[in-house]
Amino acid sequence: MEAASIAHAHGHEEHHGPPPAHKSSRVEPQLLGMLLFIISEVMIFGAFFTAYFFIRVAQGDPWPATGTKLPVDVAGVNTAILVSSSFTIHWAQTSIKNGNRFGLKAGMLTTFLLGATFLFVQINEYANIGFAPQDGAQETIFYSLTGLHGAHVFIGLCLLLFVTVRAFRGHYSPEEHRGVEVPGIYWHFVDVMWLVVYSTVYIL
Fold first, then answer.
1. Which long-range contacts (CB under 8 A, 24 or more apart) does 186-190 make?
2. Counted domains in the chain
């Protein structure tokens, strides 16, 4: 009896700290974290789109503002570049799942170069568009929406560069490829958001 009590007390002494977390979600933490982050980013974009539609619908201001012109054709080509990057990163993801390391490296490098090209064209567009954010409400909204997306592209490029370097160093495998999949989800989100921005700001 005494020995059982000592063993019971010893068992209590071995445990320190809080009990282990209960995993109630079937979604992996990395994937769940990225999905929650994307939801929060959608809300941020929603706030800017609210301001955009308020100017165009509620106030009825002309879009683009009188005396300004948006480079629709250049933005259209840039859209095609960014959409193409979604296919190349999908190629990279599919390749590593099938054990194709060449496809992984080629897909990631191509995706990074396409994304960098998109950002370069957008910066060049700012330099030659002919108006500034402080010129009026329309100009402010234009720079806010496209600039917010550009910032997300820059963050995505940093992630792509990290994944590309790791791919060339021999990381990832058909069993361990979450490090490619999670940044890929973010990049697809960036592409989809640009389609929304391009359609509303440049086309409508």
1. 186/34, 186/37, 186/38, 186/155, 186/156, 186/159, 187/85, 187/86, 187/89, 187/111, 187/115, 187/156, 187/159, 187/160, 188/86, 188/89, 189/38, 189/41, 190/82, 190/149, 190/152, 190/153, 190/156
2. 1
